Amino acid sequence: MEQHRTGRPQPRQQPKPPLSAPGTLADATAYPVPARPPRPVPPLVQALRRLPNPRLTGLGAGLFGAATMLALGSLDQLLFDGSAIVYGLLFLPVSALTALWVREADVVIAPIIVPIAFTVGIVPISGGSGGFGGQTMAVVTALAVHAGWLYGGTLVAGVITCVRKLRTMGRRQRRGRTGGPGRRG
């Protein structure tokens, strides 16, 4: 009867290279290398590191973007009578935060989420009347008139997404070359 292992397999230890005999060439040429002093970190980088760094799923980032833009659109309607410039200027940082806060596995969804959030948030400031049809036409018209802000925010999210994806691919490539953690065989 076979007995199955009940514990986790332990990682195998690499054999250590043999030490050289005293008085050989390897013993005589070893020089200590002084460590480099750490580079000073700029104050802007220190301030950015103190900011919250949540990692939202694709759905969470979509809800964040839509809820934030709906709240900002409602505030814009109350305080600034639905100013398109104020709404557009508030949309750009929300686009950037959405692209920065989505987790790496879902990073490609950020440029898709951002226009949807813009559409949800423009409903309060579109100014439609006359029922569902009138409100829908007002939203479509507002989207057409304010397409520049929509494209700008989508571009911001797209650029941030591309940079994050390239950095992730570079990290994976470096790990693959060095045989570090995360390499699968």
Automatic annotation (TrEMBL):
Protein keywords: Membrane, Transmembrane, Transmembrane helix
Domain (DUF6542): residue spans on this chain: 55-168
Top-level lineage group: Bacteria
Entry-linked InterPro entries: DUF6542 (IPR046672)
Keyword match Electron transport: no
Positions of the UniProt region annotated as Disordered: 1-38
Transmembrane stretches, start-end: 56-72, 84-102, 107-125, 137-163
UniProt keyword Transmembrane present: yes
Protein name: DUF6542 domain-containing protein
